[in-house]
Design a protein that fits this description.
single chain; alpha/beta; Alpha-Beta Plaits; 5 domains; 8-stranded mixed barrel; 6-stranded antiparallel β-sheet; 22 helices; 19% strand; binds ligand C2E; binds magnesium ion
Length: 734
């Protein structure tokens, strides 16, 4: 009956998984995005590097040509005769160019191949073109010669020089620029053997260094084949790649990404984990709050012991059932359930056992009832059931019978096995015809009838029951009036000594002479007095009356019945002793008769009252002994003086041998415990003889005397056959 909590747990489990998947997806997307951006940035940087290096390489040729021109212009001593070959070239021109402009090799030579000056790496060289340069220089020289022989524009040639990247004989790569050295060679009409200037700049590591430094790109080198995207082609004049400039692109963004990726991911995961943990904690907290709220609202509408609905929910369910049923044809059933003698269970086996029993009763009822029914515990041992959709009275009775049946099997509790009976009252009505309160009242009236009719049954409400109830209410008022107006009186049934046949005392029995109804039996009105609380006043009235009479007529002792309801009231012993004191009646001439059930209660209040009375000298007798559950231990614990064997045992004493044995056992037990034993309801002489033979100490019954009015008792006591015995001593067997 505790509200379920598994669904939210399952939900939060799903949410956790979804959050985890979403978080992972987010992290992955971030990583991919950052990696893509890094690649894009690096690609853009690479393209810029390519274009810068390509531009730089392209400008190399122009630079070398410019440097050659600068050097040629400086050679103002170069003279070339139109009429013959005369040349004067300053000494060390080749060496100066090589040193000044870092050209690896410089040649000043004639087209026919005769070398005028040669310099290699800034030093004077012997007068020949290096074999490795020879073919490349020759080819470019031929091109220059061809340019010189080509038609001029406006009598002048803008540039007769030729240059380009070349693979040299020794396999090295170089930029070679060849140009005519003398000014006249470019003029129109020139022919002959022109003086040429050739510069060879090797594209080696040294040549690449300035580029590396300029662009901050380390490791720029030339390679034969392009194996990387970071390359720029060096083409010959026909556009064919001769070689490539290659470098390792720094890829700063990728590097940065690699450096920050792991810590970044870890940070994101950490932060994500923290957020997730926080959310999980918040969720858990809100769930536990929700669950405690659900639990609290469950408890506010349910009985904590059985889990059944409480009165609030019960009334709500009843109202709802009546409201919704007005739309349908069927009726609403209300059952009032009450456990018979539950108090005795509590008193005998303790409250823990009582609680366990109530829990089990609730469980069994719930198992039997359909879902649309509401089971409620309205208090103590009271349960109620509301069930809509009932088609007939028979249908309702069938449901009640099933519930009775379900509770009839013994209950296995931790204290032992226990059987109980249950009383039920039920009312079935079409909803349009009745209010919730009236339906509940009718079920209660029917329950009362079940109890009255002997318990362990279910009773359907009938209108005539209301008349009974009204009648009872009227009687209650009448009884209160009777007590005040002296309509009650006492009859006294003498109690005889079994051995001598003499009157030893009498039992006071209350009578009610109703002005309209006539004589009413105490079996009826004592119960009514107990239910309504009148018994407290009534009981003390009887005691006072009986003791007064006993004193007046000199009766050895008087027995007065004391109800269990009275015994449970605080101050009873003091009230009784006060009455005895007021009328001057000795306490040891009073005997109070209590029932076995009182002993079973184990109530400290009862114990206290009985011990106070006994201490004052009042004797205690167990009335109707054998009809209840008292055991020897109870008799011993309570210090009883007398047992009165229930008349049910005496009635068939001579017809049933087993009863004879039982009664004998009771008498023997009483004797063994030092108790007086009275047999009630002795109606014939055979019973009297048998009981006397078995050792019974006192006899009471119609055979010896019916209950008598005081006058008759006085007469009887005066008759010669009835001699009052001496006052018996407590616990004596005489
Ligand atoms: P009880 O205390 O066991 O009283 C004995 C009952 O047995 C009396 O019934 C008596 O008339 C009846 N009786 C005695 N001898 C015979 C017999 O030989 N045959 C049969 N059939 N009956 C016999 P009564 O007066 O109707 O009282 C019934 C019960 O009402 C009493 O049973 C007692 O428990 C209760 N009662 C009567 N007066 C009072 C009272 O003042 N206070 C209380 N608390 N209970 C009372
Ligand atoms: Mg009695
Ligand atoms: Mg009795």
């Amino acid at each position: 009956m505790i509200p379920p909590t598994t669904a939210p747990h399952r939900l939060s489990f799903h949410i956790a998984w979804i959050s985890l998947a979403f978080g992972s997806f987010l992290v992955l997307a971030l990583v991919l995005c950052a990696s893509w951006m890094a690649r894009e940035i690096d690609t853009a940087a690479l393209n810029e590097q390519k274009s810068a290096i390509a531009t730089n390489v392209a400008s190399m040729g122009q630079r070398i040509q410019l440097e050659q021109s600068t050097a040629a212009d400086r050679t103002d001593g170069v003279f070339y005769s139109m009429h013959g070959r005369f040349a004067w070239v300053p000494n060390g021109l080749a060496q100066w160019i090589s040193q000044q402009f870092n050209h690896d090799r410089v040649y000043v030579y004639y087209l026919d191949g005769s070398v005028l000056q040669a310099s290699s790496h800034g030093r004077q060289a012997n007068g020949a073109i290096l074999s490795s340069d020879r073919q490349a220089v020759a080819l470019l020289s031929t091109q220059v010669a061809y340019n010189l022989s080509a038609p001029t524009v406006g009598g002048q040639r803008l540039s007769a020089g030729s240059f380009g990247f070349r693979r040299l004989e020794d396999g090295s790569l170089a930029f070679i620029s060849v140009r005519p050295l003398d000014a006249f060679a470019s003029t129109a009409g020139f022919s002959g053997n022109p003086l040429l200037l050739a510069s060879v700049v090797l594209l080696n590591e040294q040549a690449m260094n300035p580029i590396s430094q300029r662009f901050g790109i380390p490791g720029i080198r030339t390679v034969g084949a392009s194996l990387s995207s970071a390359t720029v082609a060096l083409n010959d004049e026909l556009g064919r790649p001769l070689a490539y400039i290659q470098w390792s692109p720094p890829a700063p963004a990728a590097k940065l990404f690699q450096q920050v990726a792991l810590p970044g991911i870890m940070s994101i995961v950490l932060v994500g984990g923290c957020i997730f943990g926080l959310l999980a904690w918040l969720r858990r907290t809100s769930l536990s709050l929700e669950s405690s709220q659900t639990h609290a609202s469950f408890l506010s509408l349910h009985d904590a012991l059985t889990g059944a609905a409480n009165r609030i929910l019960f009334e709500q369910s009843l109202r709802e059932a009546l409201h919704y049923q007005t739309l349908a044809e069927s009726k609403v059933l209300l059952i009032s359930v009450d456990l018979d003698r539950f108090k005795e269970v509590n008193d005998t086996f303790g409250h823990a056992a009582g609680d366990e029993l109530l829990r089990e009763v609730g469980r069994r009822l719930l198992v039997e009832l359909p879902e649309e029914a509401t089971l409620a515990r309205l208090g103590g041992d009271e349960f109620a059931v509301v069930q809509p959709g009932i088609v007939s009275d028979g249908h309702a009775r069938w449901i009640c019978q099933r519930l009775l049946q379900a509770l009839s099997d013994p209950f296995v509790l931790s204290t032992g096995i226990m059987s109980i009976t249950v009383s039920m009252g039920f009312a079935v009505e079409p909803p349009s015809a009745i209010s919730p309160e009236e339906l509940a009242r009718r079920a209660d009236v029917a329950l009362y009838h079940s109890k009255k009719a002997g318990r362990n049954r279910c009773t359907l409400y009938e209108p005539v029951m209301d008349a009974d109830r009204k009648d009872r209410l009227t009687l209650e008022v009448d009884l209160r009036n009777a007590l005040m107006q002296d309509e009650l009186h006492l009859a006294y049934q003498p109690i005889f000594s079994a051995s001598g046949g003499t009157i030893v005392g009498a039992e006071a029995l209350c009578r009610w002479q109703h002005p309209v109804r006539g004589l009413i039996s105490p079996e009826f009105f004592i119960g009514l007095a107990e239910e309504t609380g009148i018994i407290d006043e009534l009981g003390l009235w009887v005691l006072r009356r009986a003791c007064v009479l006993a004193k007046e007529i000199g009766l050895p002792w008087i027995a007065v019945n004391v109800s269990p309801v009275q015994l449970n009231r605080a101050g009873l012993a003091e009230q009784i002793l006060k009455i005895l004191h007021e009328i001057g009646f000795e306490a040891d001439r009073l005997e109070i008769e209590i029932t076995e059930g009182v002993l079973l209660q184990c109530s400290t209040q009862v114990q206290d009252t009985l011990s106070k009375l006994r201490a004052a000298g009042v004797r205690i007798a167990i009335d109707d002994f054998g009809a209840g559950y008292a055991s020897i231990s109870y008799l011993r614990n309570y210090k009883i003086d007398k047992i009165k064997i229930d008349r049910a045992f005496i009635k068939s004493l001579n017809d049933d041998p087993s009863l004879m044995l039982i009664v004998r056992a009771m008498i023997d037990m009483g004797k063994a415990m030092g108790l007086s034993v009275t047999a009630e309801g002795v109606e014939d002489d055979a019973q009297r003889r048998a009981l006397t033979a078995m050792g019974c100490t006192h006899l009471q019954g119609f055979l010896l005397s019916r209950p008598l009015l005081p006058d008759r008792l006085v007469q009887l006591l005066a008759e010669p056959g009835y001699v009052p015995s001496d006052r018996i001593v407590a616990n004596s067997l005489s």
